[in-house]
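This week, work through this protein record:
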Amino acid sequence: MVGHGVGAAKDTDLNWYPVCQLGNSCAWSDIEGGYETAISHMQSNTNTKYVINYSVGGSRTSSNEQAYNNWGQRIENAGSFWATSAGNSAANACNFAPAFTTYAVTVAAYNVALNAAFFTNTGACVDIWGAGEQVYSCLPAGGYGVMSGTSMSSPNIAGLMINLIKADDYTLPQLKTKLLSDSFTLNNGQSAAFWNTDALC
């Protein structure tokens, strides 16, 4: 979401944490470590507002609901914000974690034709839609290329969130309302945030 060549939020400091073992599968301990590290940093720097983008997820279960809601509440209490991906299963986002939680801004994906991307999760738990198909981005192994997924749309919106909180003070409900009020309507009638479709890193 930030970068020299691509990126939606310029002049932003990036704190990077390697959650998923450089592209391999993620253990729960990896996910937990990422959240705890980020939240600890937020709590130690209360004069700074942060946006955490966390595109890693999976099925919603009774055992992970409390953990995700707890992390979200702590992020909000620290005065910061959380963007997460809706998921790529072409299913109901409310059945996936952390897409279900109201503490995050949950982002679905649209394509260049302004339609829902074929893979995106949808439903009542989606807060906003972002560009997520054929997005020019930096690649995990280095260099640049085109990628698709709600892991593209989520950082796109996270970059927009950064720019909004730089300009004004928001609570989480106010920020969600601002994203919707500044949105445009997709062909499926859903609200999408306008941002550069080739601006991710």
